[in-house]
Amino acid sequence: MTTLKSKLHDDLNVAIRARDELSSSTLRLTLTAITKEEVAGTEKRELSDDEVLKVITREAKKRREAADAFAQGGRPEQAEREKAEGELLARYLPQQMSDDELNAIVAQAVEETKAAGVEGPRAMGAVMKIVNPKVAGQAEGGRVAAAVKKLLAG
User: Fold this and answer.
1) How many Å apart are CA 149 and CA 123, to the nearest integer?
2) What's the pLDDT tens digit per position in 141-150?
3) Residue 118: left if φ>0, alpha if ψ -120 to 50, beta else—which one?
4) Model-level pTM?
5) Which of 33, 52, 56, 66 shows the greatest Cβ crowding within 10 Å of its Cβ?
């Protein structure tokens, strides 16, 4: 069992003993998503920590989107629960990169693509190919894309 997955199991046991309903249900759903990912495809396999991290990131994103949808739908109590679940999952994710750090990496990638002869909005794909591996897990794709568009347009 990977270290991150075993940490989730340990935290689930602690939450169950403490009768923490929010934590236990959130961790159960996340572990279920991990198990589902492990058995997807032709044969069962053990996920690496990076793959487990991607599942947790996806689950946290679902919670944020659900919280927004509930808030817009006039269900603030459900939105608060989704937000709390998202914050709980965020504890297992790496620290998010600041806007300044992200912009510096994007600016460097834009310079590299300009040196290669690709400029303007057409360079979006080339810049994203350079930036994404550097910021994996530390910045969401939407945030990265917005930063790239802003620098390419300006």
Assistant:
1) 10
2) 788 888 888 8
3) beta
4) 0.74
5) 52
